[in-house]
Every structure is written in structure tokens, then in C-alpha cells.
């Protein structure tokens, strides 16, 4: 669930509401680290609006720096999460030795070169593994995708990190991850190829070594 960085009614940021006027803080106000980050990022967005020639004081933009800062904190919330906290209660001993595939997982990330989104159109991430006496809660696979997606990324690293996190969590016989994304930095600017999509994969263990296992995964996880 999205954590509201600013839902404490006693927060100086709430009291100030405009939040750009640091002088409005009372002397005894202490800010949490998140509040400090929100404050700093808000003034960065305020500056950015001025630099593009906008007037941050016009009505429609009054709250924009703070909204944009909150949005950026949400887009990058993966930095505050770690795999152990997310999966540790959902690893189960199970004598299952058939392939498990979760597919059509949506993904949203930010390109680390341009800070613009890349994302899957409808169904764009497939994750499969061959268990080795342990299985992982299915939702945790989607949560792992979120943890690494909500960071500044390149698609290749994102794909590999998802595979490695599952390998580390349950030590399966193999893992496969296929990701298909549209990069807005190639759509809205730069090359401006609106229909281009990028597919990346990461195969570990038997998924890499055994072509039949890999094919089974690619068939089961076929992006629809
Ligand atoms: N391999 C990889 N490249 C990416 C990813 N996201 C963006 N890029 C690329 O990063 C490259 C950055 O290249 P530069 O030449 O430094 O930047 P640029 O001048 O903005 O490049 P153009 O996008 O071609 O205009 C571009 O080719 C982007 O398409 C990604 O996830 N993986
Ligand atoms: Zn980019």
C-alpha cells in the first residue's frame, strides 16, 4: 500500500501546507528524514518549474512541487524496501518439483538515464522457477518485481535482480524472468519510436543450462 509521507496532522509539513517557506517552521519542529527529503525535493521541483519558464505561484501550480515530490518518492519507494522483510514469512517447505510460473505482472519503473518511465503495456513480466523443496508465496513474486521496479533502473538490471532475488530466497533449481517494456525515453523524445518494445530475460540454474526447461518456461510464460 502507498505510504503517505505526510499523513501526520502534527507534521510541520502539514501545518505549513505550502511547505516551500522553510521559515514557517517553528523552532522546536523536528523533521523526520522523510519529511526532510520531501521538503528538499519540493523546493527542487519549485526551482524546476521556474527554470522551464512557469510561474509556481499561479493557482494550478501552487501544490505541484509538493505533489511531484510525493510522486517521485513513490516512484522510488523500492529503495526503502528489502527482500527479506517482504518474503520471509512466505517461504514454505513443499515437495513440489514442477515448474511454477506467474505471468502478466504489471511493472512500472524509471529509466535511470532520463528519469522518465518505462513500463509494460498490459501483461509484461513472466517469472518462473523449479522448486527445490521450497516454494514462495505467489504474491511475493509480484512484490519482488515492485521492489526493484520502484527504483531508477535499466531494464536488463531490473530483470536480473528479480531472478537473483528469487534464487536467493528459495534456492530453486532454476529461475527464469522475461520482461517486456515500453521506454518513454524512446517514445516521447529521442528516437521517438512509439511502437518500440524491449524484451529482456534472465535465466539461472537449469533454466540456463537445459534448453527443454527454458522452452517449457517460455511456453508457459508466453507474453499474451
Ligand atoms: N540498455 C538500456 N538502455 C537504456 C535503457 N533505458 C534507456 N536506455 C538508453 O540509454 C541510452 C542513453 O544514451 P545517450 O546517448 O547517453 O543519451 P541520449 O542522447 O539521450 O540518447 P537518445 O535516447 O538516443 O536521444 C539511450 O540509448 C537510451 O535508449 C535500458 O533500460 N537499458
Ligand atoms: Zn531513458
Automatic annotation (TrEMBL):
Annotated family: Belongs to the GTP cyclohydrolase I family.
GO MF, one annotated term: GTP binding
Pfam families per UniProt: GTP_cyclohydroI
Residue ranges of domain GTP cyclohydrolase I in the record: 44-220
EC number: 3.5.4.16
InterPro entries with a match to the protein in the record: GTP-CH-I_C/QueF (IPR043133), GTP-CH-I_N (IPR043134), GTP_CycHdrlase_I (IPR001474), GTP_CycHdrlase_I_CS (IPR018234), GTP_CycHdrlase_I_dom (IPR020602)
Swiss-Prot/TrEMBL GO biological process terms: tetrahydrobiopterin biosynthetic process; tetrahydrofolate biosynthetic process
Protein name: GTP cyclohydrolase 1
Pathway stated in the Swiss-Prot or TrEMBL entry: Cofactor biosynthesis; 7,8-dihydroneopterin triphosphate biosynthesis; 7,8-dihydroneopterin triphosphate from GTP: step 1/1
Highest taxon in the source lineage: Eukaryota
Protein keywords: GTP-binding, Hydrolase, Nucleotide-binding, Tetrahydrobiopterin biosynthesis
PANTHER family: GTP CYCLOHYDROLASE 1, GTP CYCLOHYDROLASE I
GO cellular-component term (any): cytoplasm
Catalytic activity: GTP + H2O = 7,8-dihydroneopterin 3'-triphosphate + formate + H(+)
Native organism taxonomy: Eukaryota, Metazoa, Spiralia, Gnathifera, Rotifera
